[in-house]
Records
---
Amino acid sequence: MTQKKSLKTIGILTSGGDCPGMNCSIRAIVRTAIGEGIRVKGIEGGYAGIFKENIINLSISSVGNIIQRGGTILRSSRCLEFHEKSFRKKAAVILKRHGIDALVVMGGNGTFAGAHIFNQEHGIPVVGIPGTIDNDIMGTEYSIGFDTAIQTAMEAVDKIRDTAFSHNRNFLIEVMGRKSPAIALKVGVCSGAENIILNPEEEDLDQVVKDIKRGIKRGKKSSIIIVAEGEEPGLSYALQAELKEKYKIDSTVCILGHIQRGGSPTAFDRFMASKMGFMAVKALIAKNYPSVTIYKNGRVTIAPLKKCLDTKKKPKKEALELIRALSI
Ligand code: F6P
């Protein structure tokens, strides 16, 4: 469904797990829209902020000095009510009352699924900006926050490597990315990990153990194994127990956790988020919605929202081959 009347006020919300770069997009949306004579309102706390009517006016100066800040000044949440049709109906009424005639939503798969059904049911124009450290959104090669998360995790692994070396220890370092091994794959390569466990619930540890033993043979006294989070955090402890019981190998678990979601965005994230925020407003003006700003073949462009809804994006596993080749 499309909307006939002209665009006067855009609402912005950030939803799901936050990520570094969201503030850069908020700034870009506000400044591009105001430059085009369009008002902007910020909805605080994701979709839940609509029901609470936590809706504020955003001005050019309210987004000053935020480009370097991690998190989201609009705050975020995972809103279960938005799964219910009656709540979405209520949300449409509230947005209308606040004069909001289009939405830009930033987040991951859940955020986009909510935006899609909301658009289908109520015709409100929506543009999504992929923002999740997991980089698991279909249809785009990049989601804002991924680069910063990789940088943070890599620096943490470098520090752990120092103490692993000093104490001759094997470390299982668990990185974030529920159901998505994208962070694990990239951090594995960038931190020179000896191995990587992509699916902690199904991994056959024989190969991992063979690799540890091969390293020991050539004089290595410590190793770094990156573990993808999988279905839930903490699965590394079961792997640690298995290594000990079945293979008599000692290891130390370190779960990096939410440190990976915070921090000042890298230059790459700042640039991508700024460009995507700018493009999102241009897409609304051009009535190119429901859509998503995507990164493809080295360019930021616009794709139909429905092409970005599938949750089965498979990360490219060439990184695994690279880790194996480089850790012999
Ligand atoms: O935002 C993505 C993500 O950080 C995943 O990598 C992780 O599994 C999940 O969110 C954690 O969510 P929460 O902070 O709600 O526990």
Note: The domain at 3-145+265-308 is CATH 3.40.50.450 (Rossmann fold).
---
Amino acid sequence: MSQVLRDARRYEEEREQFISEDERPAFHLSARVGWMNDPNGFSYYNEKYHLFYQFHPYDSHWGPMHWGHAVSDDLLHWEYLPAVLAPDNSYDRDGCYSGNAITLDDGRQMLMYTGMVYETDENGERRELQMQCLAFGDGLNYEKYEHNPVLTADDLPEGGNKYAFRDPKILRQTDGTFRALIANDVKGCGGQMLVFRSDDALHWEYSHALVKNRYRIGLMWECPDFFELQGKHVLLGSAQDMIPDGLEYHNGNGTFYMIGSYNEETEQFEEETNHAVDYGIDFYAPQTVLTPDGRRIMIGWMQNWDTCNLRTESIPWYGQMSLPRELFIKKGVLYQRPIREFDAMRGKATTYKNVKVKDGVVTLPGIDGRFIDLELEISATNPKEEYRKFALRFAQDARFHTGFSFRPHESAVKIDRKFSGSRRAIIHQRRADVAHRNGTIRFRLILDRFSAEIFINDGEKVMSATIYTDISADGISFFADGDVTMNVTKYELKV
Ligand code: FRU
């Protein structure tokens, strides 16, 4: 093991002790210490879920990337393990970037990741040269492959940008051969997801482009994932520098999914639709894992590149993962719902049925809290009379609240965290389209210490946002402009 990795391991173990439980999310994975971004190598290996992550232990800001490591039995309670990769070789000395994991036939786990080294280009600019590397391990310790890197700029097709060639996702074909789907940027097109093939997982060659952006969704693409789901294939990606298209996508970095059909023989993907994965403020670079019982579970980095350098407060860690979400397709849409393991965290329930909220604010005894799972169904009291607005406020006290509202005539929901403890001019609001009939909409809010995730209409759309409100602000209220009837159930979470 290199000294660089040994130092990182010692540092994270020593410093972790200085972060108390109540400074962290209760059930979302956060950086063990320092900085976390993308989930990496999300896998099920040796009877545990493994989640690695982009990790800079020495600072709560992005820096030379390591791979942090955590394991779990239920995807909700995580145990930190020592970091597995450090930037310690000629091909990754400035960073071990995102990548994925696969189990080999001999029982070892193989990681494929992007090595990054800075170089100065012909214009004298510092650029990130990116190449693909391997490491082999047993779920605890990993050794980098002696012939790294296995894919470099020389392997790129015509026009492929060597400074934007990253985030391999490894796939196994039914004939046992391997594929790696890797994000790249090409002049006149923006992002593309390239397929490389290998018979032995060691020797790789370029095959073809699976999907090209053609500047439809942002510029460069990152972090591909690709899997079969209910007879269709889904491509997940993260796009940089997006421009919104109505309420679809938003400015800056964001996620997208494409649903289509995939022909195993020709290895061509026929795209049918594309949409954002999450319509909130903080969600990026998701990866998925297939559970032993066949569910496809996704986790994303619950942060946002545009705001992560505008901090409200100094904390000894930065960056957390979203709740693990099960994916399924319904009527051509990628639905998400909190994994069913999460139900075991539900404690005491408080339910109200047919509560009228009419032209004003309602609060209900027992409907409050900061570690909660709240289910809400609202509809117009008189189906012939549309209400103008319904709003839920949570994490609320006299000064603070986070808002979620719905305006039926606009068919739009909005999350608003202006009053959620932030002191910076960061993004505070996002909106999304929601189809409805007579103003009927269902949603589910899951609140942890530093986050809110809202699943709309059983997961048809999701909005995630981090919040920084003091935990003492635990009020909840309901507001209607018009006449609304609602059913509400709140579960306290056993954290
Ligand atoms: C996405 C990303 C990846 C890259 C990593 C670097 O958030 O930019 O493309 O591998 O972060 O930390």
Note: The chain has two domains: 3-338, 346-493.
